[in-house]
Every structure is written in structure tokens, then in C-alpha cells.
Amino acid sequence: MAVRLRKILLAVQTGVLVFLLAACAGGQTVPGLGNQTAHLAATGYEETGEASWYGHPYHGRRTASGETFDMYQMTAAHPSLPFGTWIVVENRANGRSVKVRINDRGPNRSGRILDLSYAAARVLGAIGPGVIRVRLRVIASPEATRGLSEPLSHSRGRGGETMRS
Question: Any residues with CB less than 8 A from the CB of 9 and at least 6 apart, and which?
């Protein structure tokens, strides 16, 4: 009986240890996400899905990062990319692309991967449709661009023209 009890106790202790180690190994905790975490996406990370845009009545309000939202800046909301991450967003229908900086959390609709500022949505041709299919690619991490207003590279449109933010 004592041997069986020791085996059970050892199994419980091992389970608790594994649980605690897994909890400590999680991603970076991000304000505005509650218990969710930001994944530290490396340069080149890509994601495809639907994007929407937002402007009024959020213009002038605080974002999850603590900045004031300016619908005329090239920014976006993503559920988990770290704040300050620069991405290139491509409209899959027309090939237009734009660089944006992640400064908020969202979108709040299931199935969407990104909420674009009005300015970014206008460049991509998303204002009329409201929701577009996009591909996003990380081009600079927050650490790589700390103190810069934009990353050092430019995205390209379908015809090779530079799309400046």
C-alpha cells in the first residue's frame, strides 16, 4: 500500500512540475490581452486571412498599447503580434500593399486577423468593401526598430512601385 501511495504522490508531483514549467514557458504577456499572450513572430512570419478597418468613433481614443489612435496613421490591430511590430499587408484581390505598425489589439470579430487604420485601408482599397482578404508578413520586430518612425525597407505594389507609408 505504501509503495502504491508513493507512486501516486510521485505522479502528482511530476504533473504539477510539468504544469508549472509550461506556465513559465509561455509567450510575452501583453496589456489588453488578459491571460492571452503575444507570440514573438520572427521577421518573415506570414499569415493569411480577412482584414477589416476602423476609424471613427475610435479616432483619438487610447489603443491597447497606450497610444492615442490616429486613423490617419499607418497602423493596425492584431490579436497577438507584439506592439511595435512592422508588417507588410497585401490585398490579395488587387495586389496593393502597405507597411503598418501594430499598436492595438483586435479585430473583435471571429475569423479576422487584422483591423487596419482608415489610412491603411484606403491605400489597400478596403474602404468600400469593408472586409478584404490579406496576407501579412512581419518585416521588423519592435526591438529592431526601437526609436525609428518606420522600418528601413519599403513594400512594393503589384507593378513594382514603392508604396510609402
Answer: none
